[in-house]
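Usage

Read records sequentially. Each one opens with the input sequence:
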Amino acid sequence: MNKSDDISSFFSPKGVAIVGASQTPGKIGHEIVRNIKLSGFSGGVFPVNPNAENVLDLKCYGRLSDIRAEVDLAVIAVPAGLVEGVVRDCIEKGVKAAIIITSGFSEVGNKELEERVVSIARRRLRIIGPNTFGVFYAASRLNATFGPGKVLWGKTAFITQSGALGLALMDWTTEEKYGVSSIVSIGNKADVDDADLVEYFSRDPSTSSILIYMEGLRDGRKFFEASRRAVREKPIVVIKAGRSARGARAASSHTGSIAGQDTIFTAAFEQAGIMRAEGMTQAFDWIQALNENPVPKGENVVIVTNGGGLGVLATDKCEGLGLKLAELPNDLKDEIKAITPSFGSVKNPIDLTANADDVLYGKVLDIVLRRRDVDCVIALFCQTANIDPILVAQAMLDARDRDILEKPITAAFVGGHLSQVAYSRMLEKRFAVYPSAERAVDAMYALMARHRQLEKFKGGGELR
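and closes with the structure output:
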């Protein structure tokens, strides 16, 4: 790797300077200092503002050159007209990476200023932005953003081209218990782009999956080549906005990028092995299933449910997505029949009936999970008056923990308050659980797509 290609200083710097730090709460330069300080970052934190003596009890410096300690990363939050000078100061100081928070560049037609800044920095300073809300990286406890101070740690690196959407999702992911290893607001992509970040996170030990919100690309070939290499190591899910002609125009005006023809993106995603999600909910459902489950070893899916209606909905969804519902062998049917009500069904879906309690659920899950002719399980629960959903949730968790063959399980809890409590507890235990049968099946589809990918790689083949 060339020195100019190394972007690790964005994520694990020894020292961070915040140029444009402010003493005024609510201002971007204040919130970034606050977040870095509160996040537990162990490196040096150096506010830079010639008109302040300190910010949040941290000594303030008049300019970068006044800082005697090592500074790897600069977060720049000054007006656009001052950014060029700050970039020159960064180079003089020996700073390796800069996050330019400031807007007012190519996204509003000011391409000349953006190109000039990048030209000054070329080969000496890597830049994320401009027009970004910053970078969060859990492993180094660095929250160099002006977003929420509390972010739930997890396994997914989230790259977003939309600042406002990314900020909203920082809160939403924590509320919904979707942890992240990193969040990068990539902004205008004047220098560091999606491909650079995909390369980095494909090697990052704290990241298991990569999720991208994308409106357009500057260098499509670079991105797709990087992704083809990365998907051998980690799954990549992309939400590509701008499917419609009007949406593509909105994306172009939003960030100054070229959205391109959607059909071209769809074909390129498929060739690169990228999973394209329809929207944010599906993307996070897929990521949750991929993060919290082993990859299936085969394609035989079994549905276990206490509600016939849920089983039918799940069956329809499986058929629509091309998931293979296993034909249960007679010895497996007999084993299940021996412990289930006579009016239940031992076909696939296995219907335990509305009288199924947590004990029965746990026994049946144990039976199917220890079978080598079952590769994946979708467990569905429909709340009834006489069954405690919280106990059923615990039975599912216990069955997963006893699963010595390590099979993927997705689950759905449908019902009222107690089902919601059970659902939340399972999320806290890193279980791939959803509020509908269809979403649990769709999550299993993502796991099966990953299985098929890896089988092609194992056979020495390439994705087409």
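Summary fields computed downstream for this record:
- The first strand starts at residue 15 and ends at 19.
- The mean pLDDT is 92.
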